[in-house]
Design brief:
The protein contains 12 helices and 12 strands. The chain is of the alpha/beta class and 361 residues long. The chain has a 7-stranded mixed sheet with strand order 2-8-7-6-5-3-4, sandwiched between helices. A 3-stranded antiparallel sheet has the order 9-10-12, with helices on one face. It has a two-stranded parallel sheet with strand order 1-11. The chain starts with 28 loop residues before the first strand and ends with a helix.
Length: 361
C-alpha cells in the first residue's frame, strides 16, 4: 500500500506546504540559483584541502562547540570593531535564520517581510510554528522608510525580515529603511545581507547600525561572493546577548570540524576569493544593458543576478532557453524572469539564447 503525505499525522500547520527548491537539470549553462559560477582558485582550494586534512586527524573527537577560531575569522572579515562574541554561524544562512526563528518566533508569534522577497522566510516562519505576514513593496519593488515603518507599526510583528539587497528582485535597501523599522518595533529586525559584497563599495553595510541596537541582527553567507555554496556556511553579527539566545536552540556541535576548517581557511584568502566579485558585477551590468536593448525591463540590481520584466509568457521563454541549454529561474513574479550573472562565457550563452528566442523591441 502506498502511503501519501496526507496519510501521515503531520502537524496541521504544515499541511499544504511545499518544500523549497529550484529546478535542477544537467544543462551546460545553469544560471538559476544565484551561485557564484566561478570555481575556487586552485591555490585557495589547496589550502582549504590542507586545513580539512588536518581536521580529519581529530575527527574522532567532537568539534569545538563554540567554533571560536571561525568566529574570530568572521569578526575580522566584517571589521567595524566586532568581536567573536558578536558572531554566530551555522550550516548556511538558512540555518542561521532558523535559529533566530526558533529563539524569537514560534507558536503565537509573527514574522513579517515585504513581498516579493526570499521565499524561505515564510517557509522557515511557518515551519517553526509562527505566522507569516506579507508586507508590500512599491511597483518597482523598492521599499521606503515611511512605508516600511508604517506597515510594521500596523502589524506589530515579533520579527521583521529586511533583505538587503532584496532577493529575488535585486533591489537596494538603504540604511534609513532599517533605522526606521528598528524604531517602529520592539521586536527583532533581521537584515539579510546575503548579497552585500555585490553592492557598490561605497555603500555602508547594516553592520554599521549594530551599536546600541540589541534587537538588530545582520545575516551573511559564504555561498555567493565566496563561491562556497556547497560548503553550507552562513553567519551573523549581533549583540552578544542575542548570540547567547541562539545557543538555547542550536543542536549540539552543529558545525562540523571539517566545515569549520574549510571556512576558516577560505576566510584567510578573503581578498583572493572576493577578486571575482568585480567580474561578476561586470557581467551583471552587461546582462542588464543587453536585456534592455532587447526590449525587456531590467530592474536595478545590487546582487549577482538580474530580474527582468516585460516577458509576455515567462513559462514559454523559460522553456525556450532550457531547450537551448540555458537554465534560469521563473520566480513567480508575473511577466518576469531572473538570471544569475555567471562567467563571461555563460553570460554570452544566455544573452545569445535570449536573443534567439526573440526580442521585444
Amino acid at each position: 500500500m502506498t502511503v501519501r503525505l496526507d496519510d501521515l499525522p503531520l502537524r496541521d500547520d504544515l499541511r499544504g506546504m511545499t518544500p523549497y527548491g529550484a529546478p535542477q537539470a544537467p544543462l551546460p549553462v545553469a544560471l538559476n540559483v544565484n551561485e557564484n559560477t566561478h570555481p575556487v582558485p586552485s591555490d585557495v582550494a589547496d589550502d582549504i584541502l590542507d586545513a580539512v586534512a588536518r581536521a580529519l586527524r581529530d575527527v574522532n573527537r567532537y568539534p569545538d562547540r563554540e567554533f571560536t577560531t571561525l568566529r574570530e575569522a568572521f569578526a575580522q572579515y566584517l571589521g567595524h570593531g566586532l568581536g567573536a562574541e558578536q558572531i554566530w554561524a551555522a550550516n548556511g544562512s538558512n540555518e542561521v535564520l532558523q535559529h533566530i526563528l526558533q529563539a524569537f518566533g514560534g507558536p503565537g508569534r509573527t514574522a513579517m517581510g515585504f513581498a516579493p522577497t526570499y521565499s524561505m522566510y515564510p517557509i522557515l516562519t511557518r515551519a517553526t510554528g509562527a505566522r507569516w505576514i506579507a508586507g508590500e513593496r512599491e511597483h518597482d519593488f523598492a521599499l521606503s522608510a515611511d512605508s516600511a515603518a508604517a506597515q510594521v507599526r500596523a502589524h506589530r510583528p515579533d520579527i521583521v525580515f529586511l533583505c538587503a539587497p532584496n532577493n529575488p528582485t535585486g533591489t537596494p535597501l538603504r540604511l534609513d529603511v532599517i533605522e526606521a523599522v528598528c524604531d517602529a518595533t520592539d521586536g527583532v529586525v533581521i537584515v539579510d545581507e546575503a548579497y552585500e559584497e555585490f553592492a557598490p563599495r561605497d555603500e555602508p553595510s547594516a553592520v554599521t547600525l549594530l551599536p546600541g541596537r540589541p534587537r538588530l541582527v545582520v545575516s551573511r553567507t559564504m555561498s555567493k561572493a565566496f563561491a562556497f555554496a556547497g560548503a553550507r556556511v552562513g553567519y551573523l553579527a549581533a549583540d552578544p546577548a542575542f548570540v547567547d539566545a541562539l545557543r538555547l536552540v542550536r543542536l549540539p556541535y552543529h558545525l562540523s570540524a571539517l566545515t569549520q576548517a574549510a571556512a576558516t581557511a577560505a576566510l584567510g584568502h578573503a581578498d583572493t576569493m572576493l577578486s571575482m566579485v568585480d567580474e561578476i558585477v561586470a557581467q551583471r551590468d552587461r546582462i542588464s544593458a543587453t536585456v534592455s536593448a532587447l526590449g525587456y525591463t531590467a530592474h536595478e540590481s545590487w546582487t549577482n543576478f538580474v530580474l527582468f520584466g516585460g516577458v509576455d509568457d515567462p513559462a514559454a521563454t523559460w522553456k525556450a532557453l532550457y531547450d537551448r541549454g540555458v537554465l534560469i529561474r521563473d520566480v513567480g513574479i508575473a511577466n518576469h524572469l531572473r538570471v544569475s550573472a555567471g562567467t563571461e562565457d555563460e553570460t554570452t550563452a544566455f544573452l545569445d539564447a535570449l536573443a534567439s528566442v526573440g526580442s521585444r523591441s
